[in-house]
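Exam revision sheet. Question 4 asks you to relate a sequence to its structure. Input first:
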Amino acid sequence: MKKQPLICRSCGVGLTLSLTDLGAMPLANSYLRKDQEASAEPRYSLHAYVCETCWLVQVPAMATPEHIFRDYAYFSSFSDTWRAHCAAYAKAMVARLGLTPESRVVEVASNDGILLTQFLSAGIPVLGIEPARNIAEYANAQGIPTRAEFFGAETARALRGEGYAADLIAANNVLAHVPDLHDFIEGFRILLKPGGTVTFEFPHVLEMLRLTQFDTIYHEHFSYLSLTALAPLFARHGLAMVDVEKLPTHGGSLRLFVQHAGAKAADSVATILAEETAFGLTRRATYEAFDRKVRALRAELLSMLQKLKAEGRRVAAYGAPAKGNTLLNYCGITSELVAYTVDRNPEKQGCLLPGSHLPIHAPEHILADRPDVLLVLPWNIAPEIMGQMAAIRGWGGRFLLAIPEVRLLA
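Answer key, C-alpha cells:
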C-alpha cells in the first residue's frame, strides 16, 4: 500500500521537515493496571514535523481523540501551582472584562472544573465542556455544570441555540490537543458574543526549542504553537489576535486573547511575533538543531543514571505526567535504573506507567523507602515538588532534573 503523504493540519501543505523522531511509544496517558503488565501495549510512531509554509510544528494523528480523551487520568486540581494559576486568572478576567452575574463564562476542556469554580464563587454563570466522561461526571458531582462533549462547530451551534453565547471562553492547554484545528477554531467564532473574548493558553514552541523540552511531545499533543503559526489560522475563521501575555506555566506559555475580526491588536502581539522571527521560527536551521540537542540530553541523562546505579544509589521518581512518559520511554529507562514513581492523583496510584511499567505509589512511599535520588518528572512544577518532598534532604537525598539540562540538586 502506498504511504499517504503527510499534510499540515493548518494550511494543507505537505510536510517534509523533520523536527525529531522519538520512536514508537504507547499513548502517554494510557496507564496500566498491574494485571495488564503482560498484555501487548499499542505503540505508535512519535515523529514531529514542521510545516515550512505556516511553521506549525505538529505530530501526525496516530490515534483518535475519542481513543485518547474519553477516559482520562489527568485531574487539574491535584497541582497546587495550577490551582493558584486558575484563581489568579479568574480574578484578572473579571476585572479586565467587567464580568458580572449577567455574563456567561464557558471553558473548553474544563477538566475537573477547578477554573470554573473561581467564577462560580463570584456569582458568574459557567458551563464546562469536557470530553473525558469520567472527569465530566466528577465535575458535575462538584456542582460545576459540565457537558461531556468534544468542542467544535457542531457543539457550538447547539449551545448557541440553547442561549449559551459567551462573554468569555477559556481554552487553557487544549489547542494543542486538537487534530481538526479548523472545526475547533470555527466553534469559537460561533459561540463567542460580539465583543466577547477567547483566551487560549498554550506552551510556547519557542521555549520548547530553546530549552530542549522534547518531553512535551506526545501523541495527545498534536500541535506545538506559536503566534506565527496561529495568525493565519485565526484569520481564516474571522478571528483576530488582540493581546498576548507571557506565562511561566508548563515551562513557558502564552496567554493569547482573541476576538472577532476587526478588533484592534495591542502592541504585545507584534512584539511576540518579532521575538519569534528573531529566534528563528521561520528558519529551517532552528528546527534541525533541535534533534541534535535531544539526542545529547538523552545520552547525558542515561550516563547520570548509570553512574548513580554503579555507586549503589537508589533512584525513584516523582510524578506520573504525560511528559515524564515521553522522557522515560525515549531514553529506554525502566525499573533497572528508576525503581518506581509516586503521584498525588489516586486515579494513577496502583497503576503502571505506560511503556516503562514503573509502578506508581502514593507520595508517602518515598518517606518509607528513603531513596537516595528523586527524579522530578513534572519539571514545570519542580519548586512545588521539592517543597513537598523536602524531607528527603534529612537522609541526604537529592533531586534530579532532566529538562532543560541534567542537574543533581541538594
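Marking note for examiners. The longest strand covers residues 192-203.
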